[in-house]
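Mods, move this if it's the wrong board.
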Amino acid sequence: MSEPRIKIALAGSIYVHAMIFDKAGDMNQGHAHTYDHFTLVARGGVRIESNGRSLDVPELEIIFIPKNVVHCITALEDNTVVSCLHALHSRDNPGDILEGAII
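Not the wrong board. C-alpha cells:
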C-alpha cells in the first residue's frame, strides 16, 4: 500500500488538493483540518473512515467533511482520483487557512 500522488491547484480563493491513488488499497494518513471541506470522488471509489465508522463513496459523489474530524481515505479501485476542495480563507479565522509558504 502506498500514499496517493498529490497535485495542487489554486485559483482566486479556492484550493484544490487532488490525490491520485494508483492501486486499490492505497490510502492517505488519517488527519483532520481546522476548516470544513468537500471531497469529490472524480474517478473510482473510496472508503472514508472517521470516528470508528466507514462510508464507501462511489465515483462522482461529493461528501462534506467538517473541521476537526479525523478522516482517512482508502482507494477501492485502481486509478482512483479524489479532490478535496476548500476556501483559502475562513470566516472563523481571519488569516489564511494555508501557510504562505505552501501557496
